[in-house]
Structure formats: C-alpha cells, structure tokens
Amino acid sequence: MGRRYGLGGPWVLRGVDLDLRPGTLVRVQGTNGSGKSTLLRLLAGIDAPTEGRVTGRPRTAYVPERFPAALPFSAAGYLTHLGRIQGLGPREAAAGAAEWLERFGAAAHARTPLGELSKGTSQKVAVAQALLAGPELLVLDEAWTGLDTAAREQLDLAVAERVTAGAAVVYVDHDPRRLAGAADAVFSVREGRLEERPAGPPSRGGGPPGRPARIVAVGPPGAPVPRGLPGDPEHSAGEDGSTVLTVADVYSDALLRALLTARPPWHIRQVAVAAATTAARPAESGTTT
Fold first, then answer.
1. Cα 235 to Cα 237: distance, rounded to the nearest angstrom
2. What segment(s) does the record annotate as region Disordered (predicted)?
3. Are strands 11-13 and 3-4 parallel, antiparallel or unpaired?
4. What percent of the chain has pLDDT over 90?
5. Which of 40, 54, 89, 91 has the most CB atoms around its CB within 10 Å?
6. CA-to-CA distance for 188 and 191, rounded, in angstroms?
7. Would you call 79 helix, strand, or coil by DSSP?
8. Whole-model pTM?
C-alpha cells in the first residue's frame, strides 16, 4: 500500500507490504517525519491508503502521539464511554475503567475532567482506553512519552500480556531501549519505504544479552502457576514448595509484577540471571553452569 496527502503531494509511504501475525510484537523506527505515524494510522484504520489496501482487520485499539484531552468527560466517564463503544457492557466498562486507572496510578483522578488533567495523567487515560477491551491489534505511537516510571512499567507489562494472549502489538518509541530484544520484528521507515531489520537478542542491564532470568517464587498453598504470564515462562518445582520460573530477561520485570500483583500474591525468594547451558552436557539433563 501507499499513502500521500493531496492529489499531487509527495508519497509519504509507498510499496509497503507488511503481514502482522497474532502473538507478535513489532517495533517501527525511523527519523522524525519519515512516515512512522502515518504507517501506524494506516494500521489502526484512522487513515486509508491512497493505493493498495489493508485486509484482515482485527479488533484494533490505538494510542495516538497526541491525546485530545479537551473532551466533555471525566477520566472514568471517558473510559467507560469508550469501553461501551468497544462492546463492553455498562458494568464491565466501568469496572475496566477503574481497574486501568488503578494500574496506571491515576485512580485519584477518576472524576477529574479531562481538560484539567496533567499531561502525564492524560497519557495514562489515553493508554487505558486502548487496553480496556483486550484488543487483537494494539497500535502504540510514542505511548510511553509523559508516563512516570511506574506507569511505563505497567505499560510494558500490558504489552507483554496482550502478546501472550495472542494479540499483535505494533509500537513506535523514541527510546531505543524500549522493550529491547522483546520484539519479534523490527522495521525501519526510510525514504517512504519499509525495511525489515534484525530484531536482535534480548539485552538488559541485568546480565549478558540473551540469557534467561530465573525467578524462584512461592505461591499460596495449593495455587497453580497463574495462566497468561508475561513471556510464557517455563516452570518447574523448586525446593521447599517453591516454583522456579525461567523467562527471557526482557520479560523479567513484567513477570515479577504479575506475580506480585496476582490475587493472592506470590512471594519472591530469588531473582537471578540463569547461567548458560554447557555444550559438553546433554541438553535434556537440564544441567547448567
């Protein structure tokens, strides 16, 4: 597909051929003005292509680069209204609004008019509206900008939750470390064309690139390991009733938060970067060094 503005205007994008599959995380990068936001608006269905087409439209949610906060709603009222539009019942929409405001640390502003919210709180509402109904395609255009540290971590966790649930997530962010190594595909927009780049291994300050994180946790008596955990961790029985969960390091923070906020919560005994498996030992033995 391609997109240009005006009958004789220059092409912003052309020859774009992209297949988004369920359960994948896709990063889009490029310089300012390269067409990243145009691509995301096309994917979200906000704009229509000038040539070509977008097919197979799933349930889609979109966080724009700029949120129009001057709307005649309170924060909770706006989210409830959007939830109803997205197909939720009145109680489900209201409960979802309260849950996401709580998760992003904005519960105290539930009744505040949108026009009176700070930029950071407005952004929390913008992100919350996209997550309310569990979209099958989540499109994030600089969605982390303006969020505080705790809210950014919650958004990281929410992205991991959506991918684990089988959704496709496409995002743009100015920070090259954002979800570094977690993306299944990375595309660059350059001179109106879309070019695929190597996704690269997970990299994080906690250990060597690509090594998994090992989390030893203890759940409530008799409780199974929660379903849908970020990163789809492997788990095995540990000592003294503990459970050992192993996940790609980039998902470790999200996994920890999911365990700590589970109901009832899990107790974390140890977090470490797992050692690499030695080539001299059989892989099925599970022995590490």
1. 7
2. 192-240
3. antiparallel
4. 54
5. 40
6. 10
7. helix
8. 0.71
**Which one-letter DSSP state was computed for residue 182?**
T
Q: If you average pLDDT over every residue of the chain, what do you get?
A: 85
CA distance 58 to 258: 26
Q: How far is CA 117 from the centre of its chain?
A: 24
Percentage, residues of the chain above pLDDT 70? 89
- Tokens for 283? 């892989």
Under 8 Å between Cβ of 204 and 250: yes
pLDDT at 200 > cutoff 60: no
Q: Who contacts 171 (Cβ-Cβ below 8 Å, separation ≥6)? A: 25, 26, 27, 28, 139, 140, 141, 143, 159, 178, 179
Biggest distance spanned by C-alpha atoms of the chain: 71
DSSP H stretches of helix in 72-213: 75-85, 90-103, 119-131, 149-164
Instruction: Please tell me the distance from the alpha carbon of residue 62 to that of residue 131, in angstroms, as a whole number.
Output: 9
Q: Would you state the torsion angle of the CA atoms of residues 176, 180, 186, 192, taken in this order, to the nearest 10 degrees?
A: -10
Chain centroid offset of residue 90 CA: 26
Separation CA 3–CA 1 (nearest Å) = 7
Contact 22, 168 (CB under 8 A): yes
Strand 243-248 with 11-13, pairing: unpaired
CA distances from 108 to 54, 72, 83, 98, 153 (A): 40, 19, 20, 10, 19
Give the three-state DSSP class for 66.
Answer: coil
pLDDT 10s digits, 219-260? 888 888 888 787 788 999 988 889 999 987 667 777 887 787
Helix, strand or coil, per DSSP, at residue 245 = strand
Question: Could you give the 3-state DSSP secondary structure of residue 279?
Answer: coil
Q: How many angstroms separate the CA atoms of 99 and 164, rounded?
A: 20
Please state, as a whole number, how many other Cβ atoms lie within 10 Å of the Cβ of residue 161: 18
